[in-house]
Write a structure and sequence with these properties.
single chain; mainly alpha; two-stranded antiparallel sheet; 11 helices; about 5% strand
């Protein structure tokens, strides 16, 4: 505050405000806030994370296992495990305890026969024409003689079952599995097999059942049948130090085995570690030679006198050591 000549308080002149910067946008087109990113950009970000981070590997991840989404996968695994403990596992135990084994086998045969066209088609896509003809014959026999697949006479006639899917076909065509992926409600998978599951639904006979609710009943029966078959593996999973790692490695090894039709190269565990010194050859043992020297001329055994104990045979003397003289014979005892 300043006072003028008349004593009245006056305010100091304010500094002139800088002129407004000219807008770079025409009137009415000025942007407000950050730009919006649509679902297409979000999907591109997820795919970029999956593929770009594919080379990154945690320090405790086994060689050959690609799990860049491990944090997300572990969260999904925990969700699936909690749902399994609350719903799927008790239902599978009750189903196994109540339904007799022949009835459960009939249900499993029926569901497997509905999905068997998937195997036939992927046999042909992989160039396995003989296997395709084999599986066509199996499907026809079980669908007719086996009463719609409830029975399995084809196995008794030598038409054993094969197991092919579109994920294996992609692997045969040269597409790698990609990063490991845990799907909600469905469990372990990978970036190659996850989309292939939806393709396999179109080669399942149940997909064309009407009304549509029948498809859901068949899907629920498939999940219950698979969970019942996995009850035997629960003990191994629970005994594992890290169940997530155990399930992941088991799934990836099983898928590789099926893609290669069992021709998986075995790892050579006999190779020496780098920098490990080779074992020195064993030194010859000192002392007596391995083979005994040739025996000298044979000597007559000592003659024992009547009534005396038989004399023992002289022991072989060690090389370089003189043998002790034999003890004198005992004198005869008077009768």
């Amino acid at each position: 505050m300043q006072r003028g000549l008349d004593g009245a308080a006056t305010r100091p002149p304010s500094s002139p405000s800088p002129p407004d910067r000219p807008s770079r946008h025409p009137a009415g087109l000025r942007r407000r806030g950050p730009p919006r990113r649509g679902p297409r950009a979000a999907a591109a970000a997820v795919l970029a994370l999956a593929f770009a981070a594919g080379g990154a590997r945690a320090a405790d991840t086994p060689r050959g296992v690609r799990d860049p989404l491990e944090r997300l996968n572990r969260a999904t695994y925990a969700f699936n495990d909690a749902l399994d403990r609350m719903l799927a596992k008790p239902a599978a135990r009750a189903y196994k305890a109540i339904v007799p084994r022949p009835a459960r086998e009939a249900v499993g045969n029926f569901l497997g026969n509905l999905d068997y066209p998937t195997t036939v088609l992927n046999d042909a896509l992989q160039g396995k024409l003989r296997a395709a003809g084999h599986d066509v014959a199996r499907f026809l026999v079980n669908s007719t003689v086996g009463i719609g697949g409830l029975l399995d006479p084809a196995t008794r006639w030598g038409l054993t079952a094969n197991d092919e899917d579109f994920g294996q076909t992609l692997g045969v065509w040269g597409l790698g599995p990609g990063p490991y992926l845990v799907l909600p409600f469905l469990g372990p998978s990978d970036l190659r097999d996850a989309p292939a599951r939806f393709v396999d639904r179109y080669t399942n006979v149940a997909h064309y059942a009407r009304p549509t609710t029948t498809q859901y009943y068949v899907l629920a029966a498939e999940l219950l049948d698979r969970r019942t078959a996995l009850l035997a593996a629960d003990a191994a999973v629970e005994a594992a130090f890290d169940p997530y790692t155990f399930v992941r490695n088991s799934y990836l090894q099983r898928r590789e085995y099926r893609v290669r039709d069992g021709n998986v190269p075995e790892e050579n565990f006999d190779d020496e570690l780098p920098g490990e010194p080779e074992a020195a050859p064993a030194a010859p043992a000192t002392g007596a030679p391995a083979t005994a020297p040739a025996a000298g001329p044979a000597t007559a055994p000592p003659v024992s006198m009547p009534g005396s104990a038989p004399a023992a045979a002289p022991a072989a003397a060690a090389p370089g050591v003189s043998a002790a003289p034999p003890p004198p014979a005992a004198s005869p005892q008077p009768r």
